[in-house]
Amino acid sequence: MFQIIHETVEYLKRKTEDFQPEIGIVLGTGLGGLVSEIEVKHQLMYSNIPNFPISTLEFHSGKLIFGILNGKRVVAMQGRLHYYEGYSMQQITFPIRVMKALGIAHLFVSNAAGSLNKDFKKGDLMVINDHINLQPESPLRGRNDSDMGPRFPDMSQPYQRSLVKQALEIAKENEITCHQGVYIAVTGPNLETKAEYNYLRIIGGDAVGMSTVPEVIVANHMGIPVFAISVLTDEGFTEVLQPVSLEEIIETARIAEPKMTKILSQLISTL
């Protein structure tokens, strides 16, 4: 793994003239608009980067963006990778390990998720303060490289509390409806049944999605502080569950995305 990461990092350094990012960003479904706020210095297609998995989803751009956001050097994934695409957990989280090797000190993650909490409505934002992992495999399964992190990493604070607090304050100052809560990661790609939504709420979830947790586990393994935020694109708590299309999810994310961008941009500027 170390050799593969080194090969990818050396390629990226050559292509970006040794650009050294401070912050890594992962942009979820329908949430690539933050890139418009970045003063782009370099951008590379995943397909051109050695060892990098390729996003198979038509609504994910599949670009690695290097640039300046609010005075900070960032590297942003415009389009993430998912377990349901057929990749292993190690492949999904490979970009996070590459970001760490490039020098990031913080990781910011976004996603689109379904609300499980009756107080959290479609179009609202939710800062993630904890998670429940129902995906079938850990990205840390297999032989551990102690140079990357410990065999049994602590997960008592997977999301940095100070950033959660700051984000909620920023949202309040900007009159943005933003909650905090527990994110549950499932495999997908199918959405949940009514009974499954009920179960996920009973076990403590406020929102459900198909991503984020693998990246967060690997970031914690490597000692990277994490902030994560969800755009709530549908509601799984209604008495009669309504069918949801991908187009509707993407449109809801697109409408809510500027609010998320404002929070992320201002939060990043404080680091």
Q: What are the key terms here?
A:
Rossmann fold; five-stranded mixed beta barrel; 6 helices
Q: Sketch the topology as an H/E string, one letter per element.
A: HEEEEHEEHEHEHEH
Average pLDDT level: 94
What top-tier CATH class fits best? Alpha Beta
N- to C-terminal distance = 30 Å
Content of β-strand: 15-25%
Q: Tally of extended strands?
A: 9
- Regarding quaternary structure, what we see is single chain
Would you identify the CATH architecture?
Answer: 3-Layer(aba) Sandwich
pLDDT < 50 stretches: none
How many helical elements?
Answer: 6
Radius of gyration: 18 Å
- Outline the biggest β-sheet: 5 strands, mixed, barrel
CATH superfamily: Nucleoside phosphorylase domain
| Largest sheet, spatial ordering of strands | 5-8-7-6-9
Structural class: alpha/beta
**Which descriptor suits the 3D outline?**
globular
Helix content: 25-40%
**How many structural units, i.e. domains?**
1
- CATH fold title: Rossmann fold
Function: The purine nucleoside phosphorylases catalyze the phosphorolytic breakdown of the N-glycosidic bond in the beta-(deoxy)ribonucleoside molecules, with the formation of the corresponding free purine bases and pentose-1-phosphate.
InterPro entries: Nucleoside_phosphorylase_d, Nucleoside_phosphorylase_sf, Pur_Nuc_Pase_Ino/Guo-sp, Purine_phosphorylase, Purine_phosphorylase-2_CS
EC number: 2.4.2.1
Domain Nucleoside phosphorylase: 23-268
Task: Explain briefly what this protein structure is.
This protein has 271 residues and is α/β, with parallel strands linked by helices.
